[in-house]
Amino acid sequence: MIQNDYVIETSGLSKRYGRKLALDHLDLRVPRGRIHAVVGANGAGKSTLFRILLGFLPPTAGTARILGRDSQQLTPDDRGRIGFVNEEHTLPGWMRIAAVIEMHRRQYRRWNEAAFQNVLGHYHVLPEQKVSQLSRGERAGFNLALALAQGPELLVLDEPTLGLDVVAKRAFLESLMYSNATDECTVIYCSHQMEEIERVADNLIILERGRLMHMSAPDDFCARVTHWVADIPFKGPDPMSVPGLLQLQRLDGLHHYLVLDQDEDFAEFLRASGARSVQSMPVSLDRAVNGFLAKNHAAPTQAHA
């Protein structure tokens, strides 16, 4: 069995669909342990990355390794070490719950019954029900229970709460966060919902246009982004001259600046530019990530990492 310090390693990984470059020489190393959130705008390359890592799609160039193994040469034993839950929560609708459970118990030699029951206990799923009779939230929870019970070293969750209502999302996140099984595996969590990322993630990975733009703890990333409100009685400084500018909005006569890697010197810059008052405001992870992505989506050649 191959084991090293990284669950995912890519080098120069590229994937082209005709004229479109979905992954652009991506170099990424995800350390073993904890919950790693992968975020990015639509078209950032997240789904393509997962499909290559899971061996469902070949790369155009470069290499991808998962759990130390070339993703294009995964054996059945390798796949048994990887749990996967996607947004579709695809299960055979005609099968009864008891039959699906028994099939998974036979298939995975590392089956953890306690982990399975711990997660499934959050949901009202009966053995005699057919999969097709479950709500979307119940299917999501059932899928998560099956994935964790197989005893994976790596659990990949690709938009697992997409389409779920607020109650179902909360149940899914709580069953993930409070499952002891996650202490023994690394989790890769892909979502567009920043409130989910704030709750579960230890590490934030930002992709844009198929490239790695940033990787750090979510709190560390938020600390790099600041929001300044300035009362400037005229047009204000040329946006091109504003250091670290991510976004500029003019609301109710005030200038709102979202900036990257700026300290109190930025307040002095605004005052020197004619601001009568300057105030710093807290920034949520959602605001910080969206501002960062908007800037880099508009200017793909400018990357901060």
Automatic annotation (TrEMBL):
Keywords: ATP-binding, Nodulation, Nucleotide-binding, Transport
Top-level taxonomic group: Bacteria
Pfam families: ABC_tran
SUPFAM superfamilies hit by this protein: P-loop containing nucleoside triphosphate hydrolases
Gene Ontology terms for molecular function: ATP binding; ATP hydrolysis activity
UniProt family annotation: Belongs to the ABC transporter superfamily.
Stated name of the protein: ATP-binding cassette domain-containing protein
Organism, scientific name: Noviluteimonas gilva
